[in-house]
Amino acid sequence: MQGKTLFMERLISRTRDWQCRFPALSASSQIPDSMSHGRQIVAATTSSTGVRCVFFSNHGSVLDFSATWDELERAKTWWYFVRRWNFWVVSTEAELRALRIAEDEPVLGVALNVATGECGDTLRFFALLDAAERRARGFIDVIAAGKPPVAANSHAGSPMTEAA
Q: Domain containing 69: what range?
């Protein structure tokens, strides 16, 4: 199955309640000095069988997507692009490593050290989303105050990956 088709068939468009609950994550792709450096944010949890991703689209929508690693392997061109293009927020460094394209090519993201539970548990997944929202708001608050962000030039493997 083609990656884009897999994504379109599996995505769940979340309600405006999600946009209202996570405004900084939704706005980050529009702000160059944000936590994501203007990239679209994807919050993700991984397991031995697959991944769950919540995309905070640069068009304002919130899209929830899950797939197995086998499905993503078959959709590898699309999955490669998704991992490279977005800014990833995950619970642990191990999850950030699981998203890597190659050992020497990490994805851009941050590990917040938040317990999230299983990929399918939305209520526990909110722990990651709430922590990511707090972190994203911190960047936006600093920008609004006219001060440079603390980790504005950071990338994966640098201060951006430290605990929130």
A: 3-161
